[in-house]
Write a structure and sequence with these properties.
By secondary structure, the protein is of the alpha+beta class. It is 22% helix and 28% strand. The protein contains 7 helices and 12 strands. It starts with 5 loop residues before the first strand and ends with a helix.
Length: 261
């Protein structure tokens, strides 16, 4: 077995750049099940080009310390950074993205051009995952939100962001809520009446394009099948998009993950 040198950026549940001798599949298993550090929930990480370098990270030093244990086991994790990680990573170095469940089963996603012809909606629910964790209702489309949240003049944003979108249709929700005001809201932690009030505020208040719904991002409590479009890495003027696979493709190619969605 070769002592491969892999570079992974974890964007959930923590913020970290990690060197490892494990391939992505074994890395996912180790992070969710094999480590002595307790963790329960989803794992989202991206494999980076091992040739990537930035003065902020001591990558060469970490690679030099990637040595097998005395019993022959590969070195699973050598943490390089756990602070302001995404901010200092070049999007061109991002490889495949791995969206993992708590068992270490995963879906492997490849980057692609974002299709602006995707179904439009009056409003969307954005899941901000890294480095800020929030859930917001917005009139901006999935790509427009990238420029909004990474604008240097926006005090609630960041230079770079990683976010997703929840499957949601305003009119369908309002119709269902009117028929049954005691429905259980599909958005974790949000009472349906609060969501209706947020929709009304964004619809009626001039210039109101974004409304915060939660000071946390409940990505661990949202099934893959309730996500929309894909995942977006964004900076002001640049983005990298990872489209979701269809549920049929997930069942066909990642059956173990599909069983536990």
């Amino acid at each position: 077995m070769n002592d491969d040198k892999h570079l992974y950026m974890v964007v959930h549940p923590n913020h970290a750049l990690i060197a490892s001798q494990l391939d992505p599949e074994r890395f996912a298993k180790h992070y969710t099940q094999g480590s002595t550090r307790y963790f329960e929930g989803r794992l989202i990480f991206v494999e980076l080009d091992p040739a990537f370098r930035h003065p902020y990270f001591k990558i060469d030093h970490a690679f030099a310390e990637l040595k097998r244990h005395e019993d022959g086991r590969p070195k699973a994790t050598k943490f390089i950074s756990s602070y302001r990680t995404l901010e200092h990573v070049d999007f061109d170095a991002l490889g495949d993205l791995y969206y993992c469940n708590s068992l270490g089963d995963f879906v492997q996603l490849k980057s692609a051009d974002y299709d602006p012809q995707m179904r439009g909606d009056e409003m969307r629910i954005i899941l901000e995952v890294n480095p800020i964790k929030m859930m917001v209702l917005t009139k901006y489309n999935f790509l427009e939100y990238a420029d909004y949240i990474t604008d240097p003049e926006m005090p609630k944003g960041a230079p770079k962001m990683f976010y997703a979108q929840l499957e949601f249709n305003v009119d369908d929700f309002l119709k269902e809520f009117q028929e049954n005001p005691f429905i259980r809201c599909f958005v974790p932690g949000i009472h349906p009446a609060r969501l209706r009030e947020a929709i009304t505020e964004v619809r009626t208040k001039p210039g109101k394009n974004v409304k915060g719904l939660s000071l946390d991002c409940p990505i661990d409590r949202i099934s893959y099948k309730f996500l929309r479009h894909g995942f977006m890495f964004a900076s002001h003027g640049k983005s990298k998009f990872y489209p979701l696979l269809s549920l049929e493709d997930v069942e066909r190619n990642y059956y173990k993950f599909w069983k536990n969605m």
